[in-house]
Amino acid sequence: MAEGTNGRRRFSDKWGKHELDVLAVLSSAFPQWLTSRQIAQRVKAYADSYGELADQAAKAAFAKQFQRDRAKLAAMGIAIESRQPEYSSKSEGQDFASYRLQLGDEPRVRLHFEQEDLPVLAAANYLARSISMSQASEEEHQQTSRTAPRVPQTPIPGLGLDSIAPGLGTQTIPAQLMKVVDSRRFAATVDVDGEHINVAYRDTDDLAMYVLEHPGASIISPKEAVEAFHRRLNAAAGLQELADAAKGESAATVVSQPLVRQEPAAEEHAKPHKKSSGSFQTGSEVDRRLRLMLFLSAHLGEEYSLAELAERFIGRPRTDDELKKSVAVIHKDINTLTTVSDDGEMAGSQFFDIDWSLLDTEGIVSATNSLGLERLAGISPQYLSLLTASVSYLAHSPLLPDQQRGQAQSLYQRLRPHVKAGETPWLSLTGYELEPNCFTAVRRAINDGALIDMEYTDGAGRTRRKVVAPAKIFVDEGLYYVAVWTNVDAKKRVAKTDGGEDSANWQVLRLSRVEHADIVEPDKPVQIPDVPVGELRKWSFDNGTAAAFITDQPDLPFIKNLPGANVESYGEGEKVSLTVSSDSWFVAFCIAHARHILAVAPATLRSMIVARTERELSLGSKES
Fold this sequence. Notes:
Number of strands: 22
Structural class: alpha+beta
Number of helices: 20
Shape: elongated
Distance between the termini: 63 Å
Radius of gyration: 30 Å
Strand order of the largest sheet: 7-22-19-21-20
Helix content: 25-40%
Largest sheet: 5 strands, mixed
């Protein structure tokens, strides 16, 4: 036992690998359960420090250190389950808990991945792991918490994917993807067109915008998110009219009714769960050795050069010196994973038998006898379903370049047969929507020079219909838009070009608001001006609506993100004036932030806001 200068017991960790020692002991004993005392006796680092757990101080010190090591392994994706109450220093004589590895009831899936799959697979793994880690955090807190990010029924991820996709850990995750995923710290289940989708979002205002921008969508869970959405609807129903705001009057603008300051509700998710800022791997020595251990466990008897393993688990070297250093690190890792104690008994990390002559003469690693750790290699069925959903999302969202999106679609087709029907937890990220249902039909009409007979939803949630000539599909800040030429004779099925390049003949629509699009073969070839996307955006603002709203307090965060807005002091809050190119967007924006908005102008937009609010409230009452 190691002693500190103050006489207290000190944990001995001579090699810095006791987490792997714990893993080796539990793996070699599986499926048997080991008590705390048995673990303390068999793991050398514990035995050196805590011995036989003969007194109360040793028991308490061991319990604290073991739970710390158990948490480290859980963070790496290796869960240890218990079946008795944890030891407590307040209850002498209580039986110790028993522990074993949590391997799940189903065998792990092993697939073959090509080198070109790795960039997309790494991105999808980052997305899947980020979401499932949020769920893991929620499960640790048994009581429902407003601050716990959540995704229903998502498993704790494992590092088994590294064991069958060597080189995954050396891939670069796109910075934009990391930024988008990390900023969406919460998740809710939303019903969209009859499908349940796990939506990751920034805050409850962000979730409200998502629901309102998908007509007919409704929040299923959690309960807090449903209640927060209804608070916004009730606040929006009481919005007052800001008279003559469209005329650009000063802060002394007259309001049709006296302004009543709304009582601000408690801010939902005030202290969000802090997610890991790094990628899916920690980069520590223990983590690298764990991934190497799983890889070798999945490929027992196969031969790999030290240089090949160094490139896969450390990265591609830029110079010969870097290669030599990486090879030395991997060689040291192999030695660590095959350590035995002085008396010849297992010290904990003797995971493999190695062909030492092959390693010494040719630098080739061939491992056998992995203590049954091959059970950890591969992907659990639950995590595979989440990974498949992540690959599908990346294939149909604008977060990846077109080339990688095509690779993601190919990868999805190969993963899908390994997932049971109905078990894929479809997901989405707010602000980066999937290709809408009508995307394929509209794109085909553009490619074939056809017209489309479309139904779309306006800002009040009402359905409109018209025949147009689609010209361009473009992505703006993660959302899909279509620019259409509206000067069309629907009866004669011909696009009229007598209007020239007049901006009044163009309309830009959020593609997700086009509920239905039928291709109409024109009687004559469609010939419309080729206008750059930048010009179309400019025209949409030129033809936009002058709008304004009053807030109940200054310096609200959502105001800072409004492009082209003019902000001035107004009473206790601010008056914000802006040009709205999409009435439906402004309607959703005002409802989503209605807790802090007192009045809106012009009256036409306020009427649309009230109409949409009443529609959502009526739908909510029917569902309840």
